[in-house]
Amino acid sequence: MEANATSAWVPQFPPKRDALAIVVPVTVIYVAIFVTGVAGNVVTVIVIWRCRCMHTPTNYYLMSLAVSDLLLLLSGLPQEVYSIWIRYPYPFGGAFCVLRGLAAETSANASVLTITAFTVERYLAICKPFQTATRAQAPSRRHRVFKVIAGVWAAALLCAGIQAMQFGVMVTDILGRQVPLCAQVRVLLSHSFEAATLVFFAAPMTLMCVLYALIASRLHRQRKEAVGHSTPSSLRHVAAKKRVIKMLAAVVTAFFLCWAPFHAQRLVAIHAGGAVGPGLFDGLTYVSGVLHYVSATVNPILYQLMSRKFRQAGKDTLAGLLPNLAWSVRRRASRHHPHGPRCGS
């Protein structure tokens, strides 16, 4: 009996996916994130681009953030969905493996550097107003912002390149079968992932927390001064500043909540992957992956919820785009049906 059981045993390949009870809900969540994230960030870019009233330093930073979020969604999410259904073999080749890593790291780096840049810009505008350009120097302010954004993307791409070049297609043996996987295949810089967590997460978050504390203190003093010498314009000015700061603080908070699990999972995988139970590690991987992509869809929602100016600009932009779209559709239809559309009998 024992001999029969032993001879009947056949080695099994590791499962290519988890149970459908896990994979299907995660896929549905990813599809929802992709649709809402792409639509929301495209609308954000269009609104800021088309509306002259939205051409402010802060909004230029928000447009840069929307572009980085679009890059993350378009380059990462389709392959992420594929990989949760088919873990191996990796079919896309070494170049795509490197490019996908480059896009993901560039997007992540650009996002945190952009958020840090507009936090510093708000701090200077509110706490050091005499060191910033005046309204009469608006063109020079725009040029400065464009230079900062260009520097952000250059630094993000350079640092991402170091990370991405460590990846490639590794062929591993699974029960005598050669299986290609996209994985880290070389070390160009020791402790590069730990350094990335420090430089692109821990240090910027610490700086932003300090700056927002200083901004809040300054606004509190300004509000007390405005109440003491209360004029409608001074009170409105302070209230407008507070609304902007609340929205930006919400963006920073969302960034922390979405990216902290990602960096935690990465560090656990490097230093304690074997010490953590597979169930717990898989759970952390799924949660951090979902939140990683939620970070790319939450910002447009925050803008609409917290900024009346953004909501109005969005309505005005859509109101202008939809009639043009309807006119274009009617024009194409009239070419095919000169007498108008036919109705069913």
Automatic annotation (TrEMBL):
Stretches that traverse the bilayer: 20-48, 145-165, 195-215, 244-264, 284-303
Subcellular localization(s) per the UniProt record: Cell membrane
Main location: membrane
Coiled coil regions in record: none
Pfam family, one: 7tm_1
Keyword Ribonucleoprotein: no
Membrane disposition: Multi-pass membrane protein
Family to which this protein belongs: Belongs to the G-protein coupled receptor 1 family.
Name of the gene encoding the protein in the UniProt record: LOC117647435
Keywords: Cell membrane, Disulfide bond, G-protein coupled receptor, Glycoprotein, Membrane, Receptor, Transducer, Transmembrane, Transmembrane helix
Protein name: Pyrokinin-1 receptor-like
Superkingdom of source: Eukaryota
An example molecular function term from Gene Ontology annotations: neuromedin U receptor activity
